[in-house]
Amino acid sequence: MMHNSFIPVNDPYYPTPNEVVLHKLDLLALKDGETVFDLGCGDAIQLIMACTKANVQCIGYEIFPEAIKDAKINIQKADLSNQIEIREEDIYKADISNANALILYFSRSVLGALSLKLEKELPVGARIVTHQFDIPGWTEELKKEVMQKNGALETIYLYRKI
Ligand SMILES: C[S@@+](CC[C@H](N)C(=O)[O-])C[C@H]1O[C@@H](n2cnc3c(N)ncnc32)[C@H](O)[C@@H]1O
């Protein structure tokens, strides 16, 4: 499968396990009416699960064709086309000015590259949740270690734009 040639692909299409998504969503504590983003949304499962927690609007950015296809199928199956929009665009061009919450899964180096954009463009009060990797230069509001069913320990980080 070919990637869009002029957009830098950062991390590969590797979904967050559902049980970890649930822990990430617990920390986010979404409220009705909020707008939730997943930059590099993969198969959109994080956003689909977000919609089960509250009446939220979701926007996912993704450029990998296979992931976009899976996301669209999953959204259709979940009957959430009215709540989840997929933008086939580069995360660095994402308009996050109205975001209340971001659910991210990127390596530390990508989170570091994104951090300036998050700092400049996120509204004050917006929350970010990541797992496995922290955001360089940001101080987490909360850090939680969770044990997965397979015994692996996962660290989840919650941040708030101040
Ligand atoms: C580690 S996966 C995470 C998928 C999903 N967020 C999750 O947690 O299940 C990272 C995703 O980001 C996408 N991605 C990487 N670079 C991107 C870019 N520049 N713009 C948009 N999406 C990108 C990849 O195609 C991949 O699907």
Highlighted features:
single chain; 162 residues; alpha/beta; Rossmann fold; seven-stranded mixed beta sheet; 7 strands; binds S-adenosylmethionine
Commentary on this structure:
The chain is an alpha/beta fold and 162 residues long. It has one domain: Vaccinia Virus protein VP39 (Rossmann fold), CATH 3.40.50. The protein has four helices and seven strands; from the N terminus they run αβαβαββαβββ. The protein has a seven-stranded mixed beta sheet with strand order 3-2-1-4-5-7-6. The chain is globular. The mean pLDDT is 94. The protein binds S-adenosylmethionine.
At CATH level 2, the architecture is 3-Layer(aba) Sandwich
**Helicity, in percent?**
25-40%
What is the CATH domain class?
Alpha Beta
Distance between the termini: 40 Å
Task: Give me the number of helical elements.
Answer: 4
Broad structural category: alpha/beta
Fraction of residues in β-strands = 15-25%
Bound molecules: S-adenosylmethionine
Mean pLDDT across every amino acid position:
94
- Widest sheet, order of strands: 3-2-1-4-5-7-6
Query: What is the name of the CATH topology?
Result: Rossmann fold
Order of helical and strand elements: HEHEHEEHEEE
Unreliable sequence segments: none
Sheet of most strands: 7 strands, mixed
Alpha-carbon Rg, integer: 15 Å
Query: How many beta-strand segments?
Result: 7
Name given to the CATH homologous superfamily: Vaccinia Virus protein VP39
Q: Which geometry do the CA atoms define?
A: globular
In total, the number of domains comes to: 1
